[in-house]
């Protein structure tokens, strides 16, 4: 049943597999197929150059129930609040301070302070404490819940965000997104701010959101967390290599059994 104008009409509809449509579109020769290839090439080119391609009109006017806007916003939020993007944005905002000097320790440590206050607000731990308490060679993926690529690499283990649960990650992304909007609003209004003022603004922001405020540097240093993570990774990697060798050994045994059976049949 579907609506056609003001009427509800019941009729049989043909559905086609999307993979088949794409495959046929690239193979046949016709005016419609040519237009399809031009459109597809434009989308592919945009994806290669920009890293994304969007159907703006479809997102503005969703075809319910096929509405993926919420998924898109979650993915954009996760990208926007990634450690590198967050650092770049915070640095840009912080650089608007009247007394900003990139060579001062307060400037160098500002991002760490903001990051730690955010992590503390969500987990009750600083970034270093999260790594120190959650890196575990005996856990699947060493305790990491998300990472780049198909397997855990050494550069993944020193990012606190990689150890967060799904709920913690969503809460952190929401909080960071809100803070970025708030801080950008301050910068756009050209409100005169000193470096120390930004920390006060952050604490006020967290307080409004009923979050715990970190008042110190935490009990675990970055160096201690890194050492623990490195040690656990060495153990984890040895276990991973050992498991791979066992799997290969079992595979070799199975192959030999098949070969032996094959030879027996031939004789």
Automatic annotation (TrEMBL):
It comes from the Bacteria. InterPro entries: Virulence_RhuM-like. PANTHER family: CYTOPLASMIC PROTEIN (PTHR35810:SF1), CYTOPLASMIC PROTEIN-RELATED (PTHR35810). This is Hydroxyacid dehydrogenase. It comes from Candidatus Magnetoglobus multicellularis str. Araruama.
């Amino acid at each position: 049943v579907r609506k056609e104008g003001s009427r509800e009409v019941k009729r049989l509809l043909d559905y086609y597999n999307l993979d088949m449509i794409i495959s046929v579109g690239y193979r046949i020769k016709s005016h419609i197929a040519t237009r399809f290839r031009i459109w597809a090439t434009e989308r592919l080119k945009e994806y290669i150059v920009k890293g994304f391609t969007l159907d703006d009109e479809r997102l503005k006017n969703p075809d319910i129930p096929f509405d993926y806007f919420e998924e898109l916003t979650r993915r954009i939020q996760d990208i926007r609040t990634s450690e590198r993007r967050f650092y770049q944005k915070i640095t840009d905002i912080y650089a608007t301070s009247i007394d900003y000097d990139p060579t001062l320790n307060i400037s160098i440590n500002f991002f760490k302070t903001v990051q730690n206050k955010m992590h503390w607000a969500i987990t009750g731990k600083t970034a270093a404490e999260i790594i120190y308490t959650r890196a575990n060679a005996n856990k699947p993926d060493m305790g990491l819940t998300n990472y780049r690529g198909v397997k855990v690499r050494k550069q993944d283990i020193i990012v606190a965000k990689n150890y967060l649960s799904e709920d913690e990650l969503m809460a952190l992304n929401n909080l960071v997104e809100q803070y970025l909007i708030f801080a950008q609003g301050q910068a756009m209004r050209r409100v005169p701010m000193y470096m120390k003022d930004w920390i006060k603004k952050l604490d006020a922001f967290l307080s409004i959101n009923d979050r715990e405020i970190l008042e110190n540097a935490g009990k675990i240093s970055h160096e201690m967390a890194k050492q623990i993570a490195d040690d656990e990774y060495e153990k984890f990697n040895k276990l991973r290599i050992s498991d791979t060798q066992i799997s290969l050994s079992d595979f070799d045994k199975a192959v030999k059994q098949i070969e032996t059976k094959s030879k027996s049949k031939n004789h």
